[in-house]
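User: Round two. Same drill as before: sequence, then structure, for each protein.

Assistant: Same drill it is. First protein:
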Amino acid sequence: MEAVIMAGGEGRRLRPYTHIIPKPLVPVGDKAILEIIMDQLVKRGFTKIYLAVGHKSDYIKAFIDNKEKYKGKVFLSYEKIPLGTAGPIKLLEGQLKGDFLVINGDTLSDIDYRDLLNKHKLSKKIATIAIFQKETKIDLGIVRTDDKKDIARYIEKPTFKNFVSTGIYAFSPEVFTHIKENEAIGFPDLVKRMMGNGHKVGTYHLKGTWMDLGRFEEFDKANKFYENNKSKFE
């Protein structure tokens, strides 16, 4: 089983932390978020983990080189120019032999990566996106009007529930045909392109814990949660 971790972003939303170290090495509890993800993958039987790196790649290389447990399991793929969140996948064409996972390097989750990949393979689809039901609270009164612009409903501080993409994906090798050489492209545009070309994209409902560490409020929450629930992420 193979996986790719996207670890090349600048992490602008986490500055000033990322002025010093790249976002995937920002610590959550006593580990870098990158190490948490890699340990989860290794424990679930993934034998090859590729890190798509760019910004501050020398820091990530030094980190990996100092971890004996990753020797022969973790490999770096370098982008020479910024290729967006999905473009770096193209650089691994020919190295990734079968269906594989792609994981954003700022994602804290207790997802079963093996189960996601297995269910994706059974689906025979080009891609499967792990989704999570997220609650969004609006701290204002919401007004609904009728066709005459009179108030039809008044909802005080509602909470909306929506499924969001977690930044965790499974792909079949056919995905490479939908990314051009040296193309900078993000995952949303890649998914829309595949769908526009007639492919079905499946979903995997993540029902446990998921946090996006790319934002300060989530980062602080994740640190506190991780410290009290380390066993969930092993």
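Second protein:
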Amino acid sequence: MPELPEVETIRRGIAPHVTGRCIEAVTVREPRLRWPVPADLSARIVNCTVGGVERRGKYLLFDLDRGRLLIHLGMSGRLYVLTPDVAPIRHDHLDLHLSGGLLLRFHDPRRFGAVLPLDGDTLHPLLAGMGPEPLSQDFSAGYLHRLARGRRVSVKSFLMDGHVVAGVGNIYASESLFRAGIRPTLAAGRVSLPRYQRLVVAVRETLERAIHQGGTTLRDFSDAHGQAGYFQQELMVYGRGGEPCRVCASVIRRQVINQRSGFYCPQCQR
């Protein structure tokens, strides 16, 4: 699933091309996504100008004259900026035809994504209850320490909870905990304030580095121009079970934590 750095990479890739352009038409080839494309999508967004593209967690939000357009990439979604002469291929489910001879194409083989119009400032259920952005000032050690008090859930699951912080997925939770020297199975309520301070720094550094590298390509992620991300070359623990730690040479361990694969170094992470 595209995580925060991948979604931010796509946002930065498409924003300069779509901002200021008018949506002149919409072509829907397959409306049966995880959240079905509304039948009145065209009526609600055609003739609207895109004022900008924002990101909230793993969701993209297009600011329009009338409301907003939410796009979620799901497990395998991609967005491409193309010219109208590029013929659609299998799994190209939707096109936004933009002024100036461009189109934005939504591609999603698994159909777990969403393209949904939002009215005004109405908060969609998909966005309700989300925690602070991990790159914002609201995400702090004090905030995490207070929220974790008495919690027995693992610190990795705690960090991946979208109600705690928005958009920190499996890859970047694993990598951030390694940078902070915290074992992912440790109960969130047992992590001290100084260790949460290290974790906040680690989360920010990990995400910023991943965004700089264009995200992580483990299977099929690519950006708005079809380019793969390169952060996978810097992964310290994720996906490296059985391999030596790049720091201490101990064997990286894999452990299922809350039904998700977790990876850690038993020597570097305590």
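Residues 145 and 192 are 7 Å apart (CA to CA).

User: Perfect.
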